[in-house]
Design brief:
The protein is built from 18 helices and 15 strands. With 422 residues, the protein is α/β, with parallel strands linked by helices. The protein has an eight-stranded parallel β-barrel, surrounded by seven helices. β11, α13 and β12 form a beta-alpha-beta unit.
């Protein structure tokens, strides 16, 4: 990730100085042999010999098509994006609350990528006001939006604002929806609200951060504060995970659509065993996008047991959902084109850059994320072209294979990698 943030597209290839003097390929360890391999790692992208879509493109262009001709533009939860990717949620964790969160917002805006602002920013860092000087307000919710809007090109991108139980108490969505400074987003259809049902790092739990005792005292009325870290100065702050049933989720989405009719509706799910049913409920209730956060996802604090052993891997979540009924966003260890292309082939509309984005802007606050995205874009174009296709949304189950998984299959609902469909 850091190499791509430094060198951009050059990092996709072997060292240039070794060209013509080194034989490549045999030394690379297959991804499926890695100890943390999941379904996405195990899959291989499998180009066909016969490529009728390449012929169609040849006729359309009146020349042989190249990877430059692949169209990556994608509608991500009703927001336009130059490629099938978006900036995942950064909440109130210290690393994102510092300058990195603002730097990521600025670069995402420059790229035209949709951006999610995570939970608990307002209760912890404040709401802020657009149009005021930078400084203390940069860490606030509207400070991040300001940094994003300052760079955002017309017609591209948009902001999705997450809300947790504590955010609801602070009326975050009401504040944003009624703020005159957010009017450009509303008027251009580029404001979304994301209902957070769960997250990949700690399925079934709410957000967790470590605070000093003074900071914990300031938020003790809003959050549960636990003295379980074994020190004199630090305590654990816990958010409520929220309580959901099918009917509660359905009514929450309907309430969002009724109270905020001009905002897009996103729903974020943790990698639960019933993720297929939950996604179906969200889409049927009118959600513009459903985000599935695999067990690999997450940038914040979580118990080690959850990081190691709780939640489904992202690939298994995508397998269980099968052919999606709406826009499906996938996050979890996304940083390069091959893993992204496999997720797209399994039904995702776009992939979220979370940990990778923070590492990239830490490496270079001015252009790190830009270079990372440029590398991903080129890699996706090369891969999609090699598969004989020329749009990101053309990828399908037929484009991936792994021994013993049942893939590819003409009907994804009948393919049963990693066990039978629940």
């Amino acid at each position: 990730m850091r190499d791509r943030a430094r060198r951009g597209t050059a990092a996709l290839f072997p060292p240039v100085e070794a060209y013509g003097r080194t034989l490549f390929g045999a030394a690379r360890t297959p991804a499926h042999a890695a100890p943390d391999a999941d379904l996405l790692d195990a899959l291989r992208l499998v180009p066909p010999v016969f490529m009728p879509r390449r012929l169609e493109k040849l006729i359309d262009l009146a020349r042989e098509p190249m990877h430059h001709d692949v169209d990556l533009t994608t509608v991500v939860g009703a927001l336009n994006s130059p490629l099938p990717a978006y900036l995942s949620a950064f909440g109130s964790t210290q690393v994102a609350s510092a300058d990195l969160g603002t730097a990521a917002s600025r670069q995402a805006g420059r790229l035209g990528l949709p951006m999610v602002i995570g939970e608990n920013v307002v209760p912890v860092n404040g709401y802020g006001r657009l149009g005021t000087a930078a400084g203390d307000t940069e860490r606030s919710l509207l400070g991040r939006i300001r940094a994003y809007l300052d760079e955002l090109p017309d017609g591209m991108g948009g902001v999705a604002v997450q809300q947790s139980t504590e955010d609801a108490d602070a009326e975050v969505w009401n504040l944003v929806y009624s703020d005159p400074s957010a009017r450009p987003l509303l008027e251009s259809g580029r404001l979304a609200f994301e209902l957070k049902v769960g997250q990949g790092a700690k399925p079934g739990l709410g957000g967790m951060t470590v605070l000093d005792r003074a900071a914990a005292a300031r938020v003790a009325e809003q959050y549960a504060v636990d003295d379980v870290l074994g020190g004199e100065e630090r305590v654990l702050r816990c958010s409520s995970p929220g309580t959901f049933t099918e009917e509660i989720l359905r009514q929450q989405i309907r309430l969002m659509r009724n109270n905020f009719p001009r905002a897009r509706v996103w729903v974020k799910l943790h990698p639960g065993r019933d993720v297929r049913e939950a996604a179906a409920v969200a889409w049927s209730a009118g959600a513009d996008a459903v985000t599935v956060d695999g067990a690999e996802g997450g940038t914040g604090w979580a118990p080690l047991g959850f990081l190691d052993a709780v939640g489904l891997p992202l690939g298994e979540c995508l397998r269980r959902i099968g052919r999606p009924a709406g826009s499906l966003l996938a996050s979890g260890r996304m940083w390069e084109g091959t893993r992204a292309a496999k997720a797209l082939a399994l039904g995702a509309t776009a992939v979220g850059l979370g940990r990778a984005a923070l590492l990239a802007v830490e490496e270079d606050p001015e252009r790190g994320l830009t270079r990372l995205v440029e590398a991903m874009s080129l890699e996706l174009r090369l891969l999609i072209s090699a598969l004989g296709k020329y749009e990101a949304n053309a990828l399908a189950y037929e484009d991936v294979w792994a021994d013993g998984t049942g893939l590819p299959h003409q009907d994804p609902s009948l393919a049963t990698p990693l066990g039978t469909q629940p």
